[in-house]
Amino acid sequence: MVMDESQWVPEREGTVSTKLLQKAGVAPFVPVGLGGFAMVAAYGLYRLKARGKMKMSVHLIHTRVAAQACVVGAIMLGATYTMYKDYLLKPAADRAQK
């Protein structure tokens, strides 16, 4: 079976940074979540030597939970912003048009 070439559109090839920039344009809280995750992970590695008598596994669990909290917080901010934009701003714009 031969496909019509006009129907097939190849995916744009790009680097990881261009894909991240495209994703940031669509969902701006994705880079915020990634940045928060990276900062918490870097801080956890920095504090690794100064953990005192805390077990390594406990320190790593605390670091993981804090990093996940940054990502989940960014997702929640993005979802809240989208709901605000869709349900509060659009009805106000629709009322103004009428």
From TrEMBL:
Protein name in the entry: HIG1 domain family member 1B
A Gene Ontology BP annotation from the UniProt entry: mitochondrial respirasome assembly
A GO CC annotation given for this chain: mitochondrial membrane
Originating organism: Platysternon megacephalum (big-headed turtle)
PANTHER family per UniProt: HIG1 DOMAIN FAMILY MEMBER 1B, HYPOXIA-INDUCBILE GENE 1 HIG1 -RELATED
Swiss-Prot/TrEMBL keywords: Membrane, Transmembrane, Transmembrane helix
Database matches in Pfam families: HIG_1_N
InterPro entries: Hypoxia_induced_domain, RCF1
Lineage: Eukaryota, Metazoa, Chordata, Craniata, Vertebrata
Classification via PROSITE patterns: HIG1
